[in-house]
Amino acid sequence: MILQVGGAVRALVTGLVDYAGLFPPAALDMSTAVANYAHYRASDDAWMLGRFVVPVSRLDEWSAAVGTLTAAERSAWSGARLSALLSGEFSREAEQISAFNAAEPFGVRIDVAEGRTATPDAVLATAAAMPDDVLLYCELPHREDPLALLQAVKSAHVRAKIRTGGVTRDAFPTPHEIIRFLRRCVETGVTAKATAGLHHPLRGEYRLTYAPDAVRGTMYGYLNVFLAAAAVRAGASDDEAVVILLATDPASLAFASDGVVVAGISVSASAVAEARRSSVVAFGSCSFLEPVEELGALLAGSARVSA
């Protein structure tokens, strides 16, 4: 579809979706994921698309898959950026990233890396290993207060990442854990991204995988998370942020050029833009079409949308 929006909505979702089609629940093969991304980059909805997420261990497979595309599809990849997922062998993987960028196959570079870091020392060690031209996102555990980890992230001049879902119910953080993470990011001046469980725009009950008999569970919407982040940054209380995070009714959303109202709480367009610049800047999704198409349907069904 062609998603045409303006104002605060466009500021909120431009470049928002890092495509992680290789990962569950989609778990596509490399050839399919690579072809999909070329199609999305060539589409009229490409303005909503971010990076392609790929494990460092599969970079050779990525190159081979791009090499089999048509000339038009390879051209669509030119200028794209990859987010390289680290496995833990950081020094070796940093060398692989540097070698990839030196070759710049098909006009593509890695400018972001993502790795799990459970301690402040791991944050600092991972950051020290990365090439200077690669921005690191440290995925942090969220069950406990992440303040010390975020302080390490800040001191290392890197960024944070929170896992907001998965393919089982227990993979989803509580509302308190998400708001605490967002609050701590503001307090420490750390920029972050989210990943997993956010391919629907609004919170609700969905299948946790694409299997016909999949377990259903309550998933956060990406609008909920990013609007809550903007509200926290703008000075909203934790209680107000939780109301935004838990909103499920499309009728509770009102979009305009000067901001968004969700469940009676206003978030200005300037707060949305600032949050996208320096609070939570992207989310990883195994689907690009679902975030786009469901947002289009949500906006089409709302009488309270203006450019």
Description:
The chain has 307 residues and is an alpha/beta fold. The chain has one domain (7-295): TIM Barrel, CATH 3.20.20. The chain is 41% helix and 21% strand. It has 12 helices and 13 strands. An 8-stranded parallel barrel has the order 1-2-3-4-5-6-7-13, surrounded by 7 helices. The mean pLDDT is 94.
How would you describe this structure in keywords?
41% helix; three-stranded antiparallel beta sheet; 307 residues; eight-stranded parallel beta barrel; alpha/beta; TIM Barrel
Number of strands: 13
Q: What class do helices, strands and sheet pairing give? A: alpha/beta
Beta-strand percent range:
15-25%
Question: How helix-rich are the residues, as a percent range?
Answer: 40-55%
CATH fold category name? TIM Barrel
* Run of helices and strands: HEHEHHEHEHEHEHEEEHHEEEHEH
Compact summary:
The chain is of the alpha/beta class and 307 residues long.
SSE layout and pairing:
Blueprint: H1 7-13, E1 17-19, H2 30-42, E2 49-55, H3 59-67, H4 71-77, E3 81-85, H5 90-103, E4 109-116, H6 120-129, E5 135-139, H7 147-155, E6 159-163, H8 175-188, E7 192-195, E8 204-207, E9 216-219, H9 222-233, H10 238-246, E10 253-256, E11 259-262, E12 265-268, H11 269-278, E13 280-285, H12 289-300
Parallel strand pairs: 1-2, 1-13, 2-3, 3-4, 4-5, 5-6, 6-7, 7-13
Antiparallel strand pairs: 8-9, 10-11, 11-12
Helix pairs in contact: 1-11, 2-3, 2-4, 6-7, 7-8, 8-9, 8-10, 9-10, 9-11
